[in-house]
Structures are given as C-alpha cells and as structure tokens.
Design brief:
The protein has one domain: Immunoglobulin-like. Helices cover 4% and strands 41% of the residues. The protein is built from one helix and eight strands. Strands 2, 3, 5, 6 and 7 form a five-stranded antiparallel sheet that branches. A hairpin with a 4-residue loop joins β2 and β3.
C-alpha cells in the first residue's frame, strides 16, 4: 500500500502516519521525510482487509501534533479517505477503506 500526501506547506520535518485495523487497533506506525511539498509512504506486507490511517506533518520533529493555546492544530494533519470532522476528528467509520490489492491513496493535509 502507498500513501501519497500532496500539498504540504513546506519540506520541514517529517510525516508521521498511524495505520489501524477496522477495530481501531494500531497495527503499524511509520515516519517519512518530505521531498518538496510531497511525501510518499509505502506500507508493506498488509493482509487484505479493512484499515484506516491518520497522519500529521511534524514540522519540528518533536513527535507531537502541535496546537495553539485553544487546541487547534498548528501543523498539518489528515485522515484516510480525506475524511474531515467538525470541531474534531472525523468519525472513525468515515476513514475506513478496503484493501484488496496494492493501492495508492492520495491525501491532502488540513492546515489552520
């Protein structure tokens, strides 16, 4: 499986991604450097099934999604299926996708 993240606001830091199964149990985590305004992450050896992922642009490499004083993220973030939430993350069911064969999922992060 390949995750292609486009539209990053800079090439600082790294992308951190967390892959979960359909029961919301984390099964893999990964980090990847950024080239230009794009990042490509390959996740190998996945069985067919239902998965979801979330990611964020860790611009300062502190391994945390930084937020401002009211809790709004100051770094880019996103979810599989480009799912979006209102005043928080999207419902998990909106992020689930079926993996049958090797696929490429294209995502664009949200920045505030």
């Amino acid at each position: 499986m390949t995750i292609e993240i486009n539209g990053l606001r800079n090439s600082n830091g790294q992308i951190l991604v967390e892959l979960c199964n359909e029961k919301e149990i984390k099964i893999k985590g990964n980090s990847q450097v950024i080239i230009g305004n794009k990042c490509i992450i390959k996740i190998e050896n996945l069985e067919p099934g239902k998965y979801a992922f979330k990611y964020f642009h860790d611009e300062n490499k502190n391994l945390n999604l930084d937020t401002n004083w009211v809790g709004i993220p100051s770094e880019g973030f996103g979810f599989s299926n480009n799912a979006a939430g209102t005043f928080g993350p999207p419902p998990f069911k909106k992020t689930i996708f079926a993996l049958i064969n090797n696929i490429t999922m294209k995502c664009t992060p949200t920045y505030y």
